[in-house]
Amino acid sequence: MNNVPLSGYLLLALVLFCIGLFGALTKRNAVIVLISIELMLNAVNINLVAFAKYGENPGLTGQIFALFTMTVAAAEAAVGLAILMALYRKRKSVHVDEMNHLKQ
Amino acid sequence: MTGEVIAFFVLAIVAIMGGMLLLHLSNVVHMVVALVFTFLAIAGIFITLSAEFVAAVQVLIYSGAVTIIMLFGIMLTRHDDVSEKKQIKSSTLLAAGGVGAFFLLMFFAINGMSVSEPATNLHVDNTKRIGELLYTNYLIPFELISVLLLAALIGAIILAKRDDKQEEKP
């Protein structure tokens, strides 16, 4: 066992993705839900970079895609936080359960 | 056991522990600090995958910028510390079952994969080659992502801005 096989990296990414998915589905605090989504995107980045080294056609393309994913994730965090601020100003709460404007 | 394998296992354990702490802690600030460890460990994982530039960007953007912006989001909103009740709800069980099924499905898919030889020359002039690729092959996505960042910046400012006119009216 000289170096880590591809499946090791994929399993780590899978575990992190499942943790993020569970957090996003069960946590009631909207900030924590946003952070869980960041964790899921990060797990996908591990997959992209791992396939850039161990895939069928190794090359730098996977790393560049990981960079693009990070940019989109940063933009998503900024816009998500801004929406949360606007919502908090109206409702004085960041609980996901109470965000049911569209239902009423 | 080579050094690479040991480094991978240590980093993987730190990353998963950070994620587990995110699920188990009750204080929101502690959750974010636990996730900083996960982000840093993932940066280390990127280095073992010979992606130095992506690792540097990971440290800068995730453990720096995203964590700080989340801490700002926590401090600008009110959080009652005893928010989460400890009793297990049925929706939690349903989510756990779904996530577990997804995990098993992907686990067997990963186990059935064929492996090929790793690339060996990725770490040579990593940053320089990424920069050259970004300005030749991926020029249009690069420009589009800058437009996206500008749109996100303006959108975030407009969304978070206090609309004074509505407050002055009554």
Keywords:
heterodimer, A: 104 residues, mainly alpha, Helix Hairpins, B: 170 residues, Four Helix Bundle (Hemerythrin (Met), subunit A), 7 helices, 74% helix, 0% strand
User: What fraction of the residues of chain A are assigned to beta strands by DSSP?
Assistant: under 5%
What's the CATH C level of one domain in chain B? Answer: Mainly Alpha
Q: What summary fits the major beta sheet of chain B?
A: none
CATH architecture level-2 label of chain A: Orthogonal Bundle
Which pair of protein chains has the largest interface, and what are the residue counts?
A: A-B, 73 and 81 residues
Helix content of chain B: over 70%
Distance between the termini of chain B: 72 Å
Model description:
The complex is a heterodimer of chains A (104) and B (170). Chain A has one domain: Helix Hairpins. Chain A is an all-alpha fold and 104 residues long. Chain A is built from 3 helices and no strands. The model of chain A has no long low-confidence stretch (mean pLDDT 87). In chain A, α2 runs antiparallel to α3. Chain A starts with 5 loop residues before the first helix and ends in a 13-residue tail after the last helix. Chain B has 170 residues and is mainly alpha-helical. Among the domains of chain B are: 79 residues, NADH-ubiquinone/plastoquinone oxidoreductase chain 6, subunit NuoJ (Four Helix Bundle (Hemerythrin (Met), subunit A), Up-down Bundle); 37 residues. Chain B is 74% helix and 0% strand. Chain B is built from 7 helices and no strands. The mean pLDDT of chain B is 86. At the A-B interface, α1, α2 and α3 of A face α1, α2, α3, α4 and α5 of B. Chain B: Its EC number is 7.1.1.-. Chain B: Its main location: membrane. Chain B: It catalyses: a quinone + NADH + 5 H(+)(in) = a quinol + NAD(+) + 4 H(+)(out).
